[in-house]
Amino acid sequence: MGELQELSVQGQESTQSTRPPPKAPDAPPNGGLVAWLQVLGGFFIFFNSWGIVNTYGAFQSFYETELLQNETGSTISWIGTFQAFLLIALSIFSGPIFDRGYLRELFWVGSFLVVFGLMMSSLATKYYQLFLSQGLCVGIGGGCLFLPCVAVVSTYFTTKRALAISIVASRGSVGSTIYPIVFRRLQPAIGFPWAIRVIAFIALGCLLGSISIMKSRLSPSGHARKLVDLAAFKNVPYTVFTAGLFFVFVGLYVPIFDVVVDAQIGSHVNEDLSFYILSILNAASAFGRVIPGQLADLFGSMEVIIACTVTSAVFAYGWIGIHSLGGSIAFSIVYGFVSGAVVSVQASVVASLVPDVRYIGTWMGMSLFVAGLGILIGSPIAGVLVTSGTRAFVDPFIFSGTFTITGAILFCIAWVYKKGITKAE
């Protein structure tokens, strides 16, 4: 009996010794038809995730003046911030799920929820109905789409990663440039329900196209991965940078959500033109998500995001002095450009801090969850600070700039640590 057990153990050892080690991932192609098709697919996913989130400024104004007149601006803003929070924060779940190989499942579920949520929003007449459909349902759908899209593109590129991610992210700005105009032109003509349904049908077509061409390059890991990789927080640059993301995202979205209402109150811009100011901001953001990506490949992602974050904070403070249509347009162009860069380049920064590409989904998910908490509380708190009169948004501007500059300081600390580690190696 002992001999049989010994032979059995020897056989197991022999089997283990001859079993081939896990295959390492092939080198990223950094180009080619398949790689750029992933960029194209991600382009349209961002169009209908971040594009819809950044359109909320148009919805906010309509809800305050028409559909939800009995609710305060701060209360209404919770719909948009909760939607944005879920889009980002659910990355803590979608990242590990992506790492385990369930890319297509995430895309199908996310696409269904985005379209379904928009369709249900078209039927809503009360605050809780909009919160559940537009805030909760569309937010969860976007959360299933956002990080897997970025993670897929990241695995196809190294030398051109920042540029590729920036091109993908620019579509979010293109979507949020087009959708406010679509909503503003259609809503008076065909009513709120059908205006939302048109947006839902556009989203359906774009998302089905993305699902058909996007695919994961890496084989799924052979073991279940934790939702939170605590080892990541031993990486000082990653931890400090993630803390910085929280502060930045508390302040960054305040102008984006409030620019329409402030243009009407503070700069006396008529209702039609004020909606186009949001589109101008988002159009500038499209360029801000591509051009800084090219610069990041040349000078470093961390260096570019620090410069753009500081500029965003400066212009948030400068927003206090704007009292004209020309000033509102100029602010929207510059702020849209630099804030768009912050949103797009942060993904390539996180990717550069991950020591193993197979954990990119999990690490991105954790940092984005923290950033999502910042978006969740930022605009509602700023809404409470709004006063009456033409200077109504002075305190929210100061709030936005202060939190954004605090995040920029933490980015600088992370950059110094990263440089020190690189030199030590």
TrEMBL record:
Keywords: Membrane, Transmembrane, Transmembrane helix. It holds the Pfam family MFS_1. It is a multi-pass membrane protein. PROSITE patterns: MFS. The chain crosses the membrane at residues 33-53, 73-94, 106-125, 131-156, 194-214, 235-253, 273-292, 304-322, 328-354, 366-385, 397-417. GO terms for molecular function: transmembrane transporter activity. Residues 1-27 are annotated as: Disordered. Its main location: membrane. One of its GO terms (cellular component) is membrane. SUPFAM superfamilies: MFS general substrate transporter. PANTHER family: MFS-TYPE TRANSPORTER DBAD-RELATED (PTHR11360:SF234), MONOCARBOXYLATE TRANSPORTER (PTHR11360). This is Major facilitator superfamily (MFS) profile domain-containing protein. It comes from Hypocrea atroviridis (strain ATCC 20476 / IMI 206040). The lineage of its organism: Eukaryota, Fungi, Dikarya, Ascomycota, Pezizomycotina.
